[in-house]
Specification:
Pfam families: Iso_dh. The protein contains 11 helices and 12 strands. It is α/β, with parallel strands linked by helices. A 10-stranded mixed β-sheet has the order 2-1-3-12-11-4-5-10-8-9, sandwiched between helices. A two-stranded antiparallel ribbon has the order 6-7.
Length: 355
Amino acid sequence: MNTYKIAVIGGDGVGPEVCREGKKVLHKIAELDKGIGFEFEDFPWGCEYYLEHGEMMPQDALETLKKFDAVYLGAVGFPGVPDHISLWDILLKIRKGFDQYINLRPIKLLKGAPCPLAGVKREQIDMLVVRENSEGEYAGSGSWMYKGKINEVVIQDSVFSRLGCERVIRYAYELAKKEKKTLTSISKANALNYSMVFWDQIFEEVGREYPDVETYSYLVDAASMFFVKEPERFQIVVTSNLFGDILTDLGAAIAGGMGLAAGANINPERLYPSMFEPIHGSAPDIAGTGQANPLAAVWSVSQMMDFFGYEEWGKRILDAIEQLLTEKKSLPRDLGGSSTTEAVGNEIVRLLERA
């Protein structure tokens, strides 16, 4: 039996609640498939930990997490802790420390999921955004000079290395080649005359090695419009850290909302653990009320199973989500139902068992 060790960081707000339902799905998989097992260890890191200890997680946290096969993250962020601290001191620290340079965010309109776009068919929204996850606009490079003075100046650098750009672009080309899909690069080279010109150049260079992959390139403003007006243009998308962050929230909005938005932070070489998470916020205003939608956290479990090589289980999880959405017996509140977080998780488990 293959046993996978999962580090669970529930985090803040509704994070622990949605992670609990994701763990429930993994337990059910292990029960149904005797060839797979999971061992979980929970870590109390996040904003509450910060308020007590002055840090989001211990200094040796990455060393602790190295022994695991994957990290399962709920959400971070809570009133009283600045957002840049909660982001940089746990989420980005793990992404960068474990070289999780690929961020995969599926934008797929599932059966039964609500879509705010009129007249759009389900098959028109089915894309995967490959977001650069280690540098770019989130490199943390810059300076803050003359603080509090009339001539105060801040400089935020975007860092684009050849290694960083080439490896994410190549990953996207390989994915498009394997799945026989189109590949679209999204940049802003007309205005960002160094970083995005460089990105476009590398996209073209790498593309010469993949003559069979059909490619497109859009400026980010045009791409934003087409995400809404003609989402069928996109199959595999590759873009920078910031653009990927923004566009995938837009993608979530047209594919059922943030409650159905999952993300995987991948170290393709598997030298370090990869991390799987719903990409919604911590929603502290509804924490503990049972109103949180766990489906994004469950979808991220599907991504985890794909990463471990169990694509059939990944598909079965998505099928269960679709069945829940179409039957409408146990819908969470943000999708028009009245079921609790726990009840939604229980229904997913029941549907998995029935499949």
